[in-house]
């Protein structure tokens, strides 16, 4: 039930001379800062001109005329009409609706077969997965789940960074100093070592650079040996990354990365030329974006090589042709703001009206204990190290507090990952994140483990109730009129709107924060009220509140990519 709209309708019944729709009036309603002033307030001055009456007179007139079962009382206070919703009816309507929708509560069934393509994580080959990639991976994963929840078809793309001259250097280094077994065993770490050594030695031996270039040329020309080494580098990287994705519970529908577009850029360059967009500039080919206040978009280097942007043009078109998306989102850090502005502008200049459906979901940078991340200076946190530490901490706590828990390893994984992911998804995505080990590994206060623990607590109450035999009495919703229960109901009522806003703004943090708020409100209720009351009507109502809270917390957690264990 939409209480705003229902109140608006009551106002219009009492004021037939006003020619506004209920939706108009509903949008004028305010939520007073303090519930002592009502649940909703109507500022009557908004109608005083049309009615040619003072706000005070209008408020007085309305106060005498409005009557509805769900309105406990109205008060006219200095030109405001304050509405107090009947607490029992409020709880009844909100909980009944949420309970009936079960796992679907909060979703929107009006979306018909729309498709979104999400580009997230998009890691680079031969580089280790560090905390800098956590935001894109988890924001993308959350949006992927959220869109699906709202009935969209979602395509998750890991646009691998698997092209560039550095891979020629890596092959040169591997051929000189590497061996297959060491790389197989050491994985990405070994490849990084080779790369670092290449750069060190190249300082004294410039011929190495030529060798690197020659190997890259071989990759480009499709040389068998070069390609087989390169593809193997890719396999090793993905095998490493896959372990991290598994811990995180993140999946993709496609791993088509930069190299996938090698044969798809020729047609794009031709098309740019045919559309008169390509210009020569010191031997390079560019699209002039000066009229739009941007530096030129570099399409071909003077040696004919394509660029990151060229690949993204081909990728954008490929995604439209393949998935016919209604929306295409790129979850990438804000350092690439300009890149995506240029990309979308060029697509628009090419005449693709769907350029407007492409959107850069940018996010802030990660620093490490107050300083920028730097692999060279050792200021770097590898994701698998972090996750394993968090999981170990969870395991230790479980061992101490619930030694008889079944499935300890899996639950420790869920809790540990929950702590880390919750930490990165807690703030507005555009805010920079300063990473501190103790904060990411914190399990108390507004953290993932705390929310998960609340969920498990609700599950435990429900199990206990069931063991005692569920009440046959109908819920007595008057038992939910206290402030603690009402706070929980109010949050549950807001859930659909929170999700809608999170989707529209691509902002998973709204869900993260909501889950913490609901957990907190539920815990307060749990401590202040007796859920398993002797009065069976009250017990039934409080159990219903517990059940719905549990479901909503679980759905909220799942939409930020987290599990909700039933026991902890
Ligand atoms: N691999 C790139 C990086 O790590 C991100 C790629 C983002 N996606 C894209 N279509 N450009 O910076």
Automatic annotation (TrEMBL):
Where it mainly occurs, coarsely classed, is cytoplasm
One GO CC term, this protein = cytoplasm
What are the recorded GO MF terms, alphabetically?
arginine-tRNA ligase activity; ATP binding
Q: What InterPro entries does the database record attribute to this sequence?
A: Arg-tRNA-ligase (IPR001278), Arg-tRNA-synth_N (IPR005148), Arg-tRNA-synth_N_sf (IPR036695), ArgRS_core (IPR035684), DALR_anticod-bd (IPR008909), Rossmann-like_a/b/a_fold (IPR014729), tRNAsynth_Ia_anticodon-bd (IPR009080)
- Which positions carry the signal peptide feature in this UniProt record? none
**Reactions it catalyzes:** tRNA(Arg) + L-arginine + ATP = L-arginyl-tRNA(Arg) + AMP + diphosphate
State the EC number(s): 6.1.1.19
Q: Which UniProt keywords apply?
A: Aminoacyl-tRNA synthetase, ATP-binding, Cytoplasm, Ligase, Nucleotide-binding, Protein biosynthesis
| Localisation | Cytoplasm
- The broad enzyme category this protein falls into is ligase
Boundaries of every DALR anticodon binding domain copy: 451-568
Cite the Arginyl tRNA synthetase N-terminal domain residue spans from the record: 5-85
Q: Does the keyword Thylakoid apply?
A: no
What is stated as this protein's family in its record? Belongs to the class-I aminoacyl-tRNA synthetase family.
**Could you tell me which PANTHER family the record lists for this protein?**
ARGININE--TRNA LIGASE, CYTOPLASMIC, ARGINYL-TRNA SYNTHETASE
Subunit organization: Monomer.
Q: Which HAMAP family match?
A: Arg_tRNA_synth
Check the record and name the NCBIfam families matching this protein.
argS
Q: What is the protein name for this chain?
A: Arginine--tRNA ligase
| Organism, as annotated | Candidatus Pullichristensenella stercorigallinarum
Q: Which gene encodes it?
A: argS
